[in-house]
Every structure is written in C-alpha cells, then in structure tokens.
Design a protein that fits this description.
single chain, 411 residues, alpha+beta, four-stranded mixed β-sheet, four-stranded antiparallel β-sheet
C-alpha cells in the first residue's frame, strides 16, 4: 500500500531501494558495532569538543563506502563526475534513509554527499585548478568541505556579512569571522563568502564573492566548537580568518557574484531538510504506534485512549501533507522551475511537522522516550535545529508572502 496516488519514476524507486540495501548491509552493522562511540559523548568528542579521531574515522569510512557503492555522488552534477540524478531522487533517497535510521545523526548525513559538505553543484563553479586539487579526494569520500556564510552579525540576512577580501598583487587577503559553519571542525576545505566590493554590497547589488580555502591555510583557525543542547562537543564551528591569502584559482564563480552561489546552496539545503524532517517524523510515528499497541495502562492498551491516538493521527496527517509538498517541490525543481514559494512552504511545513511528530512520539513513550537508547531525543534535537537552519520558518514565511504579493498565487 502507498499513501501517494501518483507513482514515482521507476529509476527513482530503484535508486531508493538500492540505497536502502546499502544502508542495511553496510551502515546498520557499523552503527551496532560503534554504538558505544555514537552514544557516549566522552568517546564521540575530544577535549576541544570536536569529533574524536575514532568518530572522524567512522564518518570517513561511511563516505568512502558509499562512494565505492556509487551512492555518495549519485546526485552530484555530471560536470564534476557525479550521477546527476536530480532533486526528486535526492529527496526520495534522503527521506528513506532517515525513515530507516532515525536518530543516528552522527552517521546519517554522510551516506549521500550533502550539498555543503561534499561534491555538489557548488563545485561546478570552481576553477579547473581548484577542481584538480580537491575534487578527486572529495568524490571518493576521503575529504569534505564546509560552507562559510553566516557570521556573528549576519544570520538570516546573509547580505550583512562583514568578512572582507582585500586585493593584493597575487590575489586577495581575507580577514573576518564566521559562525555556525557546520562541519568546520572536520572539513578539509571551506567555501568562504566575503565582501570584495563594499560599495556594491552596501547597495545589495553584488559585491560578495566566494573562495575555496583549505582549512589548513595560514591564518584560518577554528576558534571554537559551538556546543548545542548541553552536549560536550559539536559539529558547528566558529572561524577566524586573519590575513588568509587566496589566489585567483580559489575564486568560485564570478567576482562580486558570490551571493548567487550562497542562495543556490541554501535552496539545496531546503530540499534535504524537508526530506530529513519527513523521514525522521515517519520513523518516530512508527515507533509510537508500535509502542501504543503494546503498552498497557489502567487495564487497556494505550492505543485505545484518545489522548494517545488522536494526537498521533494528527501527526500522520501533517507528515502526509509534508511528504506531498516535498515531492512536489522537488519535481518542480527538476522541471527547471525556481519554485521559491513551493520549496519555502515544503521546508517550513516539513520541519515543523517532523518536530511535532518527534515530540508526540516522546510523549507517547513517557519516560522511555527521553532515554538515549531510543534515539528519539537525538532526532528531536536535529529537527529543532533545522527549524532554524537554511532559513528560519519566519524568513520562509516572508519569502512566501513576497511571492504571493508578486502575483505567484498558484496553490
């Protein structure tokens, strides 16, 4: 049975099923083998709060296994050697992975190349020399990158960035700070967004450029790890760039046109997070249903009580709607549509619906729902984060309203 009236293309479902077979054969056994590492923060992080050597080795192993199996780069553009499978395959595969694995957040983002961490369309705009230097290892899963856009004073309004690149005889010299740079404590490369023309940037008429910077460059420092939810470590970095020298080969795209690259990257992130939220929400709902059918209280299975069953029915309704919205947005993107309104709706609604599903699943399980063992709290934390990441729900509502005002009123 299926809850979707229209069939997905056979090539999409074949890829999805292949990814799930890979997950069962290679990822699930490694999760079980490394459960102590994944669940014990004393082992997962080092004294500085970064992933430990063992955790980083496991993440790299997952990437490389997926690359060898042909899944890691399957949605990367053909121009850089990827499979070019499109947004719908990207959405469907991610949703299926998260529905299967749920709360194993340390492992999951590395099964398929994430747009900001691995080979994606962003690198099609890199120079030939840059690709020669970084692409082979990144396509093989040996190395990873990060996306240096947000700053202490520039979050939702990324055009407010202050990091500057000053022209020199050989290239540019970059100085500034970045914050919330996911994967920065681990990455080998960083796409750094900087102001190259202050006058244009002030008018919001360009003036921002992107550079591909090795994280071991002189003057490039991960100043600290941003710890969230009281954890001992984290995956977000605070960066300091002090007179970091970059050369013309490191320019990504055109000079003063980097903001277009930033916006494209964030759009891919919205597809990913829509799929992630629906997948984790469905995983949590299934756990809650199974538990409600087994757990007894006051002489009956708790599934018989409306206080349990009605909220879960509402969760299922919301996840169904979110799933359809995500599929629709991905299909529009594959048709060449910008789908600004539809993708904003899908991301905003999906992450809220997924979060409510996790919260309700925890409540259904009672005290057990709060334990590390079930993984529900880890997924809950993931989805709380993505209600902010890649565009807050409020920013997305603003974008939706702007599209409506401009005449895009097809629903």
């Amino acid at each position: 049975m299926t809850g979707v009236a229209f069939g997905l293309p056979e090539e999409v479902t074949d890829v999805r099923d292949g990814v799930l077979r890979f997950v069962e054969a290679q990822i699930v056994p490694r999760i079980e083998l490394n459960r102590a590492l994944i669940e014990d923060q004393r082992l997962l992080y080092d004294e500085c709060g970064r992933y430990s050597t063992e955790a980083r080795a496991l993440i790299q192993e997952i990437r490389m296994l997926s690359a060898q199996a042909g899944f890691y780069t399957m949605c990367a553009p053909a121009e850089i050697g990827g499979g070019n499978l499109g947004h719908l395959t990207y959405y469907v595969a991610w949703e299926a992975i998260y529905r299967r694995l749920g709360g194993q957040g340390v492992i999951i983002p590395w099964v398929i190349a994430h747009w900001a961490f691995g080979p994606s369309r962003l690198l099609t705009m890199a120079t030939a020399e840059a690709r020669e230097r970084c692409l082979a290892d990144m396509m093989a899963g040996k190395t990873s990158m990060c996306f240096g856009l947000s700053e202490p004073g520039a979050g939702s309004d990324a055009s407010m960035i202050k990091t500057r690149a000053v022209k020199t005889g050989a290239g540019w010299r970059i100085s500034g700070r970045k914050l919330w740079t996911t994967n920065a404590p681990t990455a080998d490369w960083c796409i750094v967004f900087v102001v190259t023309d202050g006058e244009k940037a002030g008018r919001k008429a360009g003036g921002i450029s992107a550079f591909l910077v090795p994280t071991n460059s002189k003057g490039f420092v991960v100043e600290s790890v941003v710890r969230l939810f009281g954890h001992a470590g984290g995956h977000e970095g605070a960066l300091v760039l002090e007179d970091v020298e970059v050369e013309p080969w490191q320019l990504v795209g055109e000079i003063n046109q980097g903001f277009k690259i930033a916006l494209y990257g964030v759009s891919l992130g919205r597809v990913y997070n829509s799929a992630r939220a629906v997948g984790q929400g469905r995983w949590a709902l299934e756990m809650a249903i199974d538990y409600a059918k087994q757990r007894e209280a006051f002489g009956a299975k708790i599934a018989e009580y409306q206080g349990i069953s009605f909220p879960l029915a509402e969760v299922a309704t919301e996840l169904h709607a979110a799933h359809l919205m995500g599929l629709n947005a991905a299909m529009l993107l594959d048709r060449g549509e910008k789908a600004l309104k539809e993708l904003s709706m899908a991301k905003s609604y999906s992450v809220q619906a997924g979060f409510r599903a996790l919260d309700r699943a925890i409540q259904t399980h009672g005290g057990m729902g709060l334990t590390n063992e079930l993984g529900l709290v880890h997924a809950w934390q993931d989805l709380r984060i993505v209600n902010i990441a890649d565009g807050t729900n409020e920013i997305l509502a603003r974008m939706i309203w702007q599209q409506l005002l401009a005449g895009d009123r097809d629903l």
